[in-house]
Amino acid sequence: MKVAIASGKRKTAVARAVVKDGKGRFRINHMPFEIYEPEVARLSVLEPVSLIADKSKNVDIDVKVRGGGVVGQAEAARTAVARALLKYFDDPSVEALFKEYDRTLLVNDVRRKLPKLPLGRGARKRRQKSYR
Protein backbone atom coordinates (compact mmCIF):
# COMPACT_ATOMS: atom_id res chain seq x y z
CA MET A 1 0.00 0.00 0.00
CA LYS A 2 1.45 3.33 -1.08
CA VAL A 3 1.16 6.27 1.35
CA ALA A 4 2.36 9.89 1.11
CA ILE A 5 2.33 12.36 4.01
CA ALA A 6 2.95 16.10 3.66
CA SER A 7 2.34 19.28 5.63
CA GLY A 8 1.47 22.88 4.85
CA LYS A 9 1.46 26.12 6.84
CA ARG A 10 -0.22 29.51 6.57
CA LYS A 11 -0.07 32.16 9.33
CA THR A 12 -0.64 30.06 12.49
CA ALA A 13 -2.51 27.20 10.81
CA VAL A 14 -0.76 23.87 10.26
CA ALA A 15 -2.21 21.09 8.10
CA ARG A 16 -1.11 17.50 7.54
CA ALA A 17 -2.37 15.54 4.54
CA VAL A 18 -2.22 11.77 4.03
CA VAL A 19 -2.75 10.38 0.51
CA LYS A 20 -3.17 6.62 0.08
CA ASP A 21 -4.76 4.08 -2.25
CA GLY A 22 -8.54 4.12 -2.03
CA LYS A 23 -11.88 4.95 -3.59
CA GLY A 24 -11.63 8.73 -3.94
CA ARG A 25 -12.67 9.81 -0.43
CA PHE A 26 -11.66 13.28 0.77
CA ARG A 27 -11.96 14.19 4.46
CA ILE A 28 -10.92 17.23 6.47
CA ASN A 29 -10.70 16.82 10.25
CA HIS A 30 -12.58 13.48 10.03
CA MET A 31 -15.53 15.11 8.28
CA PRO A 32 -16.51 14.53 4.63
CA PHE A 33 -15.20 17.23 2.34
CA GLU A 34 -18.66 17.96 0.89
CA ILE A 35 -19.93 19.48 4.17
CA TYR A 36 -16.79 21.54 4.91
CA GLU A 37 -17.77 25.21 5.31
CA PRO A 38 -17.42 27.95 4.06
CA GLU A 39 -17.67 27.23 0.35
CA VAL A 40 -14.76 29.54 -0.58
CA ALA A 41 -12.46 27.51 1.67
CA ARG A 42 -13.80 24.26 0.21
CA LEU A 43 -13.09 25.41 -3.34
CA SER A 44 -9.61 26.58 -2.35
CA VAL A 45 -8.70 23.19 -0.84
CA LEU A 46 -10.11 21.39 -3.88
CA GLU A 47 -7.87 23.20 -6.41
CA PRO A 48 -4.92 20.75 -6.42
CA VAL A 49 -7.29 17.78 -6.71
CA SER A 50 -9.25 19.34 -9.56
CA LEU A 51 -6.06 20.11 -11.50
CA ILE A 52 -5.23 16.40 -11.72
CA ALA A 53 -8.78 15.05 -11.56
CA ASP A 54 -8.10 11.97 -13.70
CA LYS A 55 -5.28 10.73 -11.44
CA SER A 56 -6.89 11.56 -8.09
CA LYS A 57 -9.95 9.32 -8.51
CA ASN A 58 -8.18 6.29 -7.02
CA VAL A 59 -6.76 7.87 -3.87
CA ASP A 60 -8.12 8.71 -0.43
CA ILE A 61 -7.08 12.07 1.02
CA ASP A 62 -7.28 12.71 4.76
CA VAL A 63 -6.37 16.19 6.06
CA LYS A 64 -5.97 17.27 9.67
CA VAL A 65 -5.66 21.01 10.23
CA ARG A 66 -5.23 23.00 13.45
CA GLY A 67 -4.74 26.61 14.50
CA GLY A 68 -5.48 29.87 12.76
CA GLY A 69 -8.71 30.97 11.16
CA VAL A 70 -10.87 29.64 8.37
CA VAL A 71 -8.88 31.08 5.46
CA GLY A 72 -5.50 30.25 7.01
CA GLN A 73 -6.61 26.66 7.57
CA ALA A 74 -7.88 26.40 4.00
CA GLU A 75 -4.59 27.70 2.56
CA ALA A 76 -2.55 25.36 4.78
CA ALA A 77 -4.71 22.38 3.77
CA ARG A 78 -4.40 23.34 0.10
CA THR A 79 -0.60 23.33 0.29
CA ALA A 80 -0.53 20.06 2.26
CA VAL A 81 -2.82 18.30 -0.24
CA ALA A 82 -0.80 19.50 -3.23
CA ARG A 83 2.49 18.41 -1.68
CA ALA A 84 1.10 15.01 -0.69
CA LEU A 85 -0.31 14.40 -4.18
CA LEU A 86 3.04 15.40 -5.70
CA LYS A 87 4.88 13.00 -3.40
CA TYR A 88 2.36 10.20 -4.03
CA PHE A 89 2.43 10.37 -7.85
CA ASP A 90 6.13 11.33 -8.08
CA ASP A 91 5.57 12.82 -11.54
CA PRO A 92 7.46 15.91 -12.79
CA SER A 93 4.54 16.91 -15.01
CA VAL A 94 2.31 17.26 -11.91
CA GLU A 95 4.90 19.53 -10.28
CA ALA A 96 5.14 21.66 -13.41
CA LEU A 97 1.35 21.91 -13.59
CA PHE A 98 1.07 23.01 -9.95
CA LYS A 99 3.84 25.60 -10.28
CA GLU A 100 2.36 27.00 -13.47
CA TYR A 101 -1.09 27.32 -11.88
CA ASP A 102 -0.02 28.82 -8.54
CA ARG A 103 3.32 28.68 -6.77
CA THR A 104 1.74 28.69 -3.28
CA LEU A 105 0.39 25.21 -3.97
CA LEU A 106 3.88 23.88 -3.24
CA VAL A 107 5.53 26.71 -1.27
CA ASN A 108 4.31 27.90 2.14
CA ASP A 109 3.35 31.55 2.49
CA VAL A 110 5.90 32.87 5.01
CA ARG A 111 4.09 36.10 5.88
CA ARG A 112 3.24 36.45 9.57
CA LYS A 113 1.52 39.07 11.68
CA LEU A 114 3.72 41.87 13.02
CA PRO A 115 4.01 42.00 16.81
CA LYS A 116 2.36 44.79 18.77
CA LEU A 117 4.79 47.53 19.76
CA PRO A 118 4.86 49.85 22.80
CA LEU A 119 2.97 53.17 22.73
CA GLY A 120 0.41 51.85 20.30
CA ARG A 121 -2.71 49.80 19.89
CA GLY A 122 -1.13 47.42 17.37
CA ALA A 123 1.81 46.85 15.09
CA ARG A 124 1.45 50.15 13.19
CA LYS A 125 -1.13 52.31 14.93
CA ARG A 126 0.09 54.86 17.50
CA ARG A 127 -1.65 57.01 20.07
CA GLN A 128 -2.20 60.57 18.92
CA LYS A 129 -0.31 63.46 20.42
CA SER A 130 -2.49 66.30 21.69
CA TYR A 131 0.07 69.09 22.08
CA ARG A 132 0.81 70.10 18.47
CATH topology description: Ribosomal Protein S5, domain 2
Structural class: alpha+beta
Alpha-carbon Rg, integer? 18 Å
What CATH first level would be assigned? Alpha Beta
How many E-type strands?
Answer: 5
Describe this structure in words.
The chain is an alpha+beta fold. It is 33% helix and 23% strand. The protein has one domain (3-105): Ribosomal Protein S5, domain 2 (2-Layer Sandwich). It has helices at 39-51, 70-89, 92-101; strands spanning 3-10, 13-21, 26-28, 31-32, 59-66. It has a five-stranded mixed beta sheet with strand order 1-2-5-3-4. A hairpin with a 2-residue loop joins strand 3 and strand 4.
Fold blueprint:
Elements (H helix, E strand, L loop, with lengths): L2 E8 L2 E9 L4 E3 L2 E2 L6 H13 L7 E8 L3 H20 L2 H10 L31
Parallel strand pairs: 3-5
Antiparallel strand pairs: 1-2, 2-5, 3-4
Helix pairs in contact: 1-2
Compact overview of the structure:
The chain is an alpha+beta fold. The protein contains three helices and five strands; from the N terminus they run E-E-E-E-H-E-H-H.
